[in-house]
Amino acid sequence: MCIFESMKSNIIISESERPLWQIPIAALFFSIAAFILLFALYNISFNEKGLILFLHRLEPCIYFVSVGIAFTFTKSIHIDVKNSKFRPTINLGPIKLGRWQKIENYEYVSVFAQPLQDGGYIFEVNLWYDRNKHFELYEENDYKEAFIIGYELSEELNIDLLDATERNNYKWIDKDEWKAKMKANSQV
Fold first, then answer.
1. Residues of the chain with pLDDT > 70: what percent?
2. Sign of CA dihedral 4, 89, 112, 11
3. CB of 173 within 8 A of CB of 161?
4. Model confidence pTM above 0.85
């Protein structure tokens, strides 16, 4: 599931929040890691053998922190339309890790089908810019949801939308026609 937010000159595409049941699991893993770290610090000896033992005790701590992070992180893309830059971020609670990158010219948005080994597809929404550079904004198993994200982004940036989901049959989308079709479907 994806959340698409548009605030005049800023666009945020983000994964939905983690399910509530994952928070206690993450807290459990972080607590175990903290206990291991405190135990390792309490019994530390400042000699070569003691430091080696301390490092060996940190190994499971790193494992538990990694699993805790896996239960808490989400990804998002921030696009600053006014200043022509974007920032992919990994969010760990209130902490956002990522850096801004400059975009000179927005070209178009594409929705692309990536085949999977099981015969299914994953649909990618890509933002193409600066002559053949692109950034993968979003992945989704559902074609319709990926296409709606691509459409909304292309509308916000006032650029074209390419449907590249059929191999060797790429189509530029007539967005006015698509809007009319969606409006007719919503009235039924």
1. 91
2. positive
3. yes
4. no
Alpha-carbon distance 124 to 138, whole Å?
6
Closest CA to 27 of 35, 38, 37, 17: 35
Paired tokens of 68: 């805790």
Are the C-beta atoms of residues 139 and 124 closer than 8 Å to each other?
Answer: yes
Gap between the Cα atoms of 162 and 112, Å rounded: 9
CB 161 within 8 A of CB 151: yes
**pLDDT for 106 beyond 90:** no
- Residues 14-52: tens digit of each pLDDT: 666 778 888 899 999 999 999 999 988 887 888 888 888
Interatomic CA distance for residues 76 and 143, integer angstroms: 19
CB–CB of 154/160 below 8 Å?
Answer: yes
C-alpha–C-alpha distance, residues 73 and 61, integer Å? 18
CA end-to-end span of the chain: 25
- How big is the CA angle at 93 (ends 31 and 137), to the nearest 5 degrees? 135
Q: Using an 8 Å Cβ cutoff, are 110 and 147 in contact?
A: no
The encoded tokens of residue 134 equal: 């692109």
**Cα–Cα distance for residue pair 154/107, rounded to 1 Å:** 10
Whole-number Å distance between alpha carbons of 128 and 157? 12
